[in-house]
Write a structure and sequence with these properties.
Layout: H1 3-11, E1 64-71, E2 76-86, E3 92-105, E4 109-119, E5 125-139, E6 142-152, E7 158-171, E8 175-185, E9 191-203, E10 207-217, E11 223-235, E12 241-250, E13 256-268, E14 273-282, E15 293-304, E16 309-319, E17 325-336
Parallel strand pairs: 1-17
Antiparallel strand pairs: 1-2, 2-3, 3-4, 4-5, 5-6, 6-7, 7-8, 8-9, 9-10, 10-11, 11-12, 12-13, 13-14, 14-15, 15-16, 16-17
Amino acid sequence: MTNSLLFFFSMLLVASQGVGFQKQSEEAEPFQWLISTGETAGVSYITHRVSQISLQTESGPPVEIKTDETRVNSQTTRIIRKSFSRSANGARLLSETTVEEINRLPGDRVRAVRTVSQPDANGRLRVIRQETQEIAKTGADIYRITKTVSLSGSNSVLEEKEQVTQVEKRSGEKSIDIDRVRYIPSANGTWDLAERRVSRNIVDKEETQTDEDVYSSDVNNGVSISQKLKILELQDETGRINRRSESYASGNGGILRLNRRLTIVQTPLTNGRQQTIQTIETRSPVAANENLRLVQKVIENLQANGANETKRQVQVLEPDLNGGMRTIENWQSIELK
């Protein structure tokens, strides 16, 4: 796999999934992990029906994913997800293991730990990443989510690399406000603000409208708006979902102008099939006055074979030198439960 493709997958949201629509008055079930980068998404309240296409593991596209879910007790659920790849001679190899333990506590609180391990040169599993997340109800229709991400450092010791807090507030029957702040460690050992995103989501039966402001540190050591997003998500009577996200960034003179468009179209097909087409358009860094141009297209096809098996095929395309599109990656995997 090329370095550019690995970067692409790392920048996408974790997990390729459609979040089946729930009324805005319902809290999200099953448990949702907080997405700490990119567009905001509700954890305690569902705000969007679809998310960006991505890999589920950090070790590259798997050929098989096996998931086992166990109810440890009435409050605790454990999920073990094993990803397998193929060696050069076709042997099936364990490439990654993810263990999630979700504890539902009194007072509408939830605490979860997700641990990702990969085999070392000797085949022994080594923890490379761990996430802890806590959800607490802090008021009427208000939830606070905190998440800490630790990565393996020197001597394989986990070191905290990211802290995220997200506050979700429901107002009335349709409005959900999200305030997400992400911190990263500084050189002197303190935590610096990396980004703040504030969104207002109007969630209706077949439509969601989102206005999102992105705040970043500026040259004066303050925080100012660096980006605005407008997101519209529609679902028709056939179940087809169309999501368009437009990003406006500061240009000359500090004026916000359209510089990126993400479009996702998810279509349910017959016989347990589903297709999602995702396109990304951006403005050329060397020709800022030109219109947006297509820079990437991803096609994902899912085929459900019964309740416990899903075949997933992903094709990634980029522009070629002749004005067309060329495939830079094409792979498939089987997900088993």
